[in-house]
C-alpha cells in the first residue's frame, strides 16, 4: 500500500468496481471471486440486453441450467447439472432478497416465480450451482436462485406495454421513492395470452390440442425504513394445462402465491451485528383431478410461518468472520377434493434448525470456510398413512472450502458441501386409495458435492472452469404397492452420481461489443447402473453477443443450445423426439430521447424481442410418469414489441 491514505482508498474503490458483489453464499456482502461457492451472476444490464418474456427465459441462459416443464405445470423446473428428478422443482431453493420462498405441501413449486415475477425489477440474479443447505436448509439441494430486486433508486415511475404473438398483451409498471429515512420500490404486472397451440398424443393414444389461455397478475414490493425491511411478492395465475395426468385436451387451473418477509437489523458494536426475520409463505391451488368416473375439483392450500435470527461476528481486522443462527418454522396445509375423501387431511409440522459458519483468512490470499447445520422436524398432528405414523426426525449437514487467490485476477476454489431435502406433505400424507398413498416413514434425501474451480477476472473479461462430482442418496421415488394392493407409494432408496465440467466466459470488446458464453458436459448414473437416468441432455451451451450500435440503439442475440435428450426405454414413442435444438432469441432496444427530447419523459425505449427465431420443434422428455416419450416445449417462433416510458 502507499503512504497516502486517500490514494489507498481510491485504489481500493477502483478495485471494488471491478468486482461482482453477492450476498447469497454466506448471507453477507462479498465479492464473487473470493466467496466459497460456485456462482453465476446475471445483472440488470444483461437482462435488459438479451430480453425475455419472464424469469424462465432469463434462467434458461444460465450456465448448466436446463429449463423444462411437465404435463401439470409448463415452464416450472430449473434442472441444475442434470438433476431432473421430479415435476416439483424440489431440488432448487428460490430466495427473494435472501429470504426463502417455501412450499411445504408440494415441496418446491416455483411455477409462479418463473412465469410471473416482474423481471424488470431485478437488479441481479445470483445462481449457486451446488448445495446451500448449511445456511438455507431443505431444498437448497442442487442449486439456489437468489432474486435481488432494485433498491434505493431515485424517485421514478416506469410504465410498459407489450403485445405480440399468440394474442399476448402485457402491462407492467415499476416505481421507486425515497427520502432521508425511507425507500420504497416495486413493480406490478398483468399479462393475458391465448397461448400457442399445445398438441400431442396422450396416454390413451388420442390426439389432443388446446391453448393455455393465460391470465396472470403479480406484484413485488421492497420497503426500507431505518433498520426495518419489508419484502413481498404476490401472484395469481389462471391457465389451461394438460392435467394431473397427460390425458385429454386440457383442464383449467388457478394458482396463487403470497410471500411476505419483515426484517430488522441491529448493530451492537463494531464486531457484532444481527438480523431477525419473520417470513410468511402462502399458496393455494385449484386443479381438476381424475377419478374413476370423471374429473373433480381439487383444492390445495398451505400457510408457512418462519422466524429466524442470524448473528454476524468479525475479528482481527475482518480476517475472522463467524455466523451463527437458528430458525423455527410452522407449516400447515391440506388438500381437499369434491365428492371424495380429502387426499391430504390437515397437517401441521414444526421444523427447526441451528447453523453456523466460520470464514478465516489464513493468509491474505487464502480463505478457509467451515460450516454446519443441525435440523429437526416434528409432526404435530400425527396420523396413520399407509400403516405408518410420522415420527420426529433430525439430521446434520456440513460444508468445507478453500479459496486461494493466486493474484488479483485469478484463483482456485475447492469446495465440499452436504445438503438435504425433507419430504413434502404430499409425499408423507397423501391418501388416494388404489391410486397413490403417502409414506409417513420417509427420510430426508441427501447429497454430497465436490467442486473444483479455476477462475480469472479482470475489468473486461471473466472466465471460469469448474469440475463437479455429486452423489445423491435416499432419493424419494414412486413404486407400485405389493399385491394384492393396487396403486403406488413413495419410498427412499434411490441414489445417483452426477459429474461434469463447466466453462463460462464473459467479455467486453472495444467498449461496444459484449460477449457471454458457457458450456456444460454432464453425465449421471443411478443405483441400477443406468447411465443418463435423468434424461437431461449431456451437452449444454449458452452463447450471447450484444452490440451497442449507437448510444441509443442496442442489438443482442442469444443461442441456447441443448444436445438430444435421452429416452426412457419403456415410454410410448408417439410424439416427436426430444432432439437437440438451438433456441435463438433476438432483442433490440432503441431509446428515443434524442428524437423526443427529455421534456416528454426521462427515457422512452422501444423493444423488439423474438423467441425461437429458427422456429425449432422443441420437445422435452416426459420425465414424470415416463409413459409418453415427450411433451411439447415451444409453440414455435414468437415476436413481441414493447414500449417503456420512465418519468
Structure characteristics:
7 helices, 647 residues
Can you tell me about this structure?
By secondary structure, the chain is mainly beta. It has a single domain, classed as Maltoporin, Chain A (Beta Barrel), CATH 2.40.170. 7% of the residues lie in helices and 58% in strands. It has 7 helices and 39 strands. The strands form 7 sheets. The protein has a 22-stranded antiparallel β-barrel.
Topology (SSEs and partners):
Elements (H helix, E strand, L loop, with lengths): L4 H14 L2 E2 L7 E2 L7 E5 H7 L4 H5 L5 E4 L8 E4 L11 E5 L2 E2 L10 H6 L5 E8 L3 H4 L6 E7 L6 E9 L3 E11 L3 E12 L3 E5 L5 E5 L2 E12 L2 E14 L9 E19 L2 E19 L4 E21 L4 E18 L6 E20 L2 E14 L4 E2 L2 E2 L3 E13 L4 E12 L3 H5 L1 E2 L3 E2 L7 E13 L3 E20 L7 E22 L3 E14 L12 E10 L4 E10 L18 E11 L1 H4 L6 E9 L7 E3 L8 E3 L5 E9 L1
Parallel strand pairs: 6-9, 28-31
Antiparallel strand pairs: 1-2, 3-8, 4-5, 6-7, 8-9, 10-11, 10-39, 11-12, 12-15, 13-14, 15-16, 16-17, 17-18, 18-19, 19-20, 20-21, 21-22, 22-25, 23-24, 25-26, 26-29, 27-28, 29-30, 30-31, 31-32, 32-33, 33-34, 34-35, 35-36, 36-39, 37-38
Uncertain runs are: none
**What's the gyration radius in Å?**
24 Å
- Strand portion, in percent? over 45%
Q: Could you report the average pLDDT, rounded to the nearest whole number?
A: 93
CATH topology label: Maltoporin, Chain A
What is shown here, in short?
With 647 residues, this protein is mostly beta strands. It has one domain (5-630): TonB-dependent receptor, beta-barrel domain (Maltoporin, Chain A, Beta Barrel).
Amino acid at each position: 500500500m502507499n503512504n497516502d491514505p486517500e490514494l489507498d482508498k481510491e485504489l481500493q474503490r477502483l478495485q471494488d468496481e471491478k468486482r461482482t458483489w453477492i450476498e447469497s453464499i454466506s448471507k453477507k456482502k462479498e465479492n464473487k471471486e473470493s466467496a466459497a461457492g460456485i456462482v453465476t451472476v446475471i445483472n440488470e444490464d444483461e437482462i435488459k440486453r438479451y430480453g425475455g418474456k419472464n424469469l424462465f427465459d432469463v434462467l434458461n441462459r444460465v450456465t448448466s441450467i436446463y429449463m423444462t416443464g411437465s404435463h401439470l405445470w409448463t415452464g416450472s423446473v430449473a434442472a441444475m447439472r442434470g438433476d431432473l428428478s421430479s415435476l416439483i422443482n424440489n431440488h432448487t431453493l428460490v430466495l427473494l432478497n435472501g429470504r426463502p420462498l417455501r412450499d411445504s405441501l408440494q415441496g418446491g413449486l416455483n411455477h409462479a416465480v418463473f412465469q410471473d415475477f416482474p423481471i424488470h425489477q431485478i437488479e441481479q440474479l445470483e445462481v449457486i450451482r451446488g448445495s446451500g443447505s448449511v445456511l438455507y436448509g431443505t431444498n437448497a439441494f442442487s442449486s439456489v436462485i437468489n432474486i435481488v430486486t432494485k433498491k434505493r433508486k431515485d424517485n421514478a415511475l416506469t410504465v410498459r406495454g407489450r403485445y405480440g404473438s399468440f394474442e399476448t398483451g402485457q402491462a407492467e409498471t415499476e416505481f421507486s421513492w425515497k427520502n432521508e429515512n425511507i425507500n420504497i420500490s416495486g413493480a406490478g404486472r398483468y399479462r393475458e395470452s391465448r397461448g400457442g397451440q399445445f398438441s400431442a398424443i396422450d396416454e390413451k393414444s388420442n390426439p389432443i390440442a388446446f391453448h393455455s389461455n393465460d391470465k396472470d397478475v403479480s406484484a413485488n414490493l421492497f420497503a426500507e425504513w431505518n433498520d426495518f425491511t419489508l419484502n413481498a411478492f404476490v401472484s395469481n395465475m389462471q391457465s389451461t394445462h394438460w392435467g394431473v395426468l397427460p390425458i385429454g385436451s386440457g383442464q383449467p387451473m388457478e394458482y396463487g402465491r403470497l410471500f411476505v418477509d419483515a426484517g430488522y437489523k441491529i448493530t451492537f458494536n463494531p464486531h457484532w451485528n444481527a438480523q431477525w426475520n419473520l417470513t410468511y409463505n402462502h399458496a393455494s391451488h385449484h386443479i381438476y383431478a381424475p377419478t374413476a368416473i370423471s374429473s373433480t375439483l381439487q383444492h390445495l392450500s398451505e400457510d408457512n410461518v418462519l422466524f429466524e435470527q442470524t448473528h454476524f461476528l468479525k475479528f482481527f481486522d475482518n480476517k475472522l468472520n463467524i455466523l451463527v443462527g437458528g430458525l423455527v418454522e410452522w407449516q400447515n396445509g391440506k388438500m381437499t377434493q369434491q365428492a371424495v375423501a380429502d387426499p391430504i387431511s390437515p397437517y401441521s409440522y414444526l421444523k427447526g434448525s441451528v447453523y453456523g459458519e466460520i470464514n478465516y483468512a489464513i493468509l491474505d490470499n487464502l480463505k478457509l470456510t467451515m460450516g454446519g447445520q443441525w435440523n429437526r422436524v416434528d409432526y404435530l398432528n400425527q396420523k396413520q398413512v399407509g400403516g405408518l405414523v410420522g415420527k420426529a426426525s433430525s439430521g446434520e449437514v456440513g460444508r468445507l472450502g478453500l479459496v486461494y487467490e493466486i493474484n488479483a485476477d485469478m484463483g482456485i476454489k475447492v469446495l465440499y458441501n452436504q445438503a438435504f431435502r425433507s419430504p413434502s406433505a404430499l409425499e408423507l400424507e397423501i391418501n388416494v386409495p388404489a391410486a397413490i398413498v403417502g409414506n409417513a416413514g420417509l427420510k430426508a434425501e441427501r447429497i454430497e458435492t465436490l467442486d473444483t474451480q479455476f477462475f480469472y477476472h479482470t475489468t473486461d473479461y471473466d472466465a471460469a472452469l469448474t469440475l463437479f462430482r455429486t452423489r445423491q442418496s435416499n432419493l424419494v421415488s414412486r413404486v407400485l404397492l405389493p399385491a394384492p394392493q393396487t396403486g403406488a407409494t413413495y419410498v427412499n432408496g434411490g441414489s445417483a452420481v452426477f459429474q461434469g465440467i463447466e466453462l463460462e466466459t464473459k467479455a467486453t470488446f472495444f467498449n461496444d461489443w459484449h460477449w457471454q458464453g458457457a458450456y456444460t458436459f454432464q453425465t449421471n448414473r443411478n443405483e441400477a447402473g443406468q447411465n443418463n437416468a435423468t434424461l437431461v441432455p449431456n451437452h449444454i451451451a449458452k452463447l450471447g453477443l450484444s452490440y451497442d450500435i449507437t448510444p441509443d440503439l442496442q442489438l443482442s442475440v442469444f443461442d441456447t443450445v441443448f444436445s438430444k435428450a435421452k429416452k426412457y426405454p419403456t415410454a410410448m414413442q408417439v410424439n416427436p423426439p426430444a432432439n437437440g435444438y438451438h433456441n435463438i432469441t433476438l432483442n433490440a432496444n432503441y431509446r428515443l430521447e434524442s428524437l423526443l427530447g427529455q421534456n416528454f419523459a426521462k427515457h422512452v425505449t422501444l423493444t423488439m424481442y423474438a423467441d425461437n427465431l429458427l422456429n425449432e420443434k422443441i420437445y422435452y422428455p416426459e420425465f414424470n410418469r415416463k409413459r409418453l416419450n415427450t411433451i411439447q416445449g415451444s409453440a414455435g417462433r414468437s415476436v413481441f414489441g414493447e414500449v417503456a416510458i420512465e418519468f
